[in-house]
Amino acid sequence: MSAVVGKIGFLLSELLEEKEMEELLSSGSVPEIASKLRRTAYGKFVPDIEDIHRRDLEAAIQKRYNSELESLEKYFTFPEKLILKHVMTRCEIETVKKVLRILTAGEDIEDRFLACLPGKKSYSSVQDFVSSLKGKPYYRILSSVHGAGGNLAKMENSLDYWYFSHLLRKLRLSSRSRRVIKLFKDQVDLMNIMWIYRAKMLFGYEKERVMNLLLPFGRRFKTNQLDDLASSKSAEELVSKLRGTPYYEYFESSLKSLGEFLIERHIDRYLYRKFLTLVKNYMNDLEMVIGYIHLLEYEMKNIVTVIEAVRYGMDRRTAKEYLVI
Full-prediction pTM beyond 0.70? Predict the structure, then answer.
């Protein structure tokens, strides 16, 4: 255990601090961001190109993420190694969902979107893409939903169902996973809140259709409570029904500016603080590694946000509101 704790302690010390993220935000260009990142743990992954393109910089960030995750596997044996391998598929799952959205919208796919998904790099359709995933552990459920005429929401939902149902099953094999199970069940609750918001407020789904999108293994909401949330007529009503839960404070303060992206940020910030607590008040090495993996993932998302903010000349103070810190 001491070897893992020492390793994670070192990796945690390499995570960017808030002031360093703000310094990145003050950059005047993508090459300037790259120059600053070369002085951090990302240095060996960021190519020394004077006029580096954002695609190359984002790919370098992804390479560091992949490298750090792969370096942690050797510290564990069954069942913890099995758990970590599954947690590490989350990046791949999110990549698959991103590609499905792009193809459904009829847009082109850039290589930078595929950093977590090695293999074929071009797809002519959703069917072509889904077929290319044959052999992946989630292929059967995704192919079944797509073959039955499932839309984008159902396909994304099927991937989340596969990931969390298998993750919780694997976590129960370990005696060191009690707090982690609670945290991931919180994450399922928050994803259900997000699905309710998207399905009701953006797509106008009826309650019964919304309920079919929700994951059945959250922590705090029973079926009748999810049914009540899914019957909300507005974002304000949805948030008001969260009163009395730990999630409420992350939405209550910004009812007037709720939107899909902001709700995702509220959810990310809630989970960020939970994973941060996991590594600060760790009880075992499994908790510490899982916490670190997710903190690194949020850092990666923040850097990508910074790159986009600098590219489009977003006001620094406004851009900071989009960061998960």
Answer: yes
Is 291 inside a domain boundary?
Answer: no
Which residue carries 């006029």 as its tokens? 51
Residue-number span of the structural domain to which 141 is assigned = 81-173
The string over 143-169, giving b where at least 16 C-beta atoms fall within 10 Å of a residue's C-beta and e elsewhere, is bebbeeeeeebebbbbbbbbbbeebbe
Q: How many domains does the chain have?
A: 1
Residue 148 located in a structural domain: yes
DSSP annotation string for 243-297: TTSTTTHHHHTTGGG--HHHHHHHHHHHHHHHHHHHHHT-SSHHHHHHHHHHHHH
CATH number at residue 117: 1.20.1690
How far apart are the C-alpha atoms of 269 and 73, rounded to whole Å? Answer: 27
Q: What CA dihedral angle connects 189, 195, 200 and 206, to 10 degrees?
A: -90
Domain presence at residue 128: yes
Q: Specify the DSSP class assigned to residue 206.
A: -
Is 94 contained in some domain?
A: yes
Each residue's pLDDT expressed in tens, for the chain with a length of 325 residues:
578 888 999 999 999 999 999 999 999 999 999 999 999 999 999 998 889 988 889 889 988 988 898 888 888 889 999 999 999 888 889 889 988 998 998 887 765 556 666 655 678 889 999 999 999 999 999 999 999 998 998 999 999 999 999 999 999 999 999 999 999 999 999 999 999 988 888 888 999 999 999 999 999 999 999 999 999 998 889 888 999 998 888 777 655 566 677 778 888 888 999 999 999 888 899 999 999 999 999 999 899 999 999 998 998 888 888 888 8
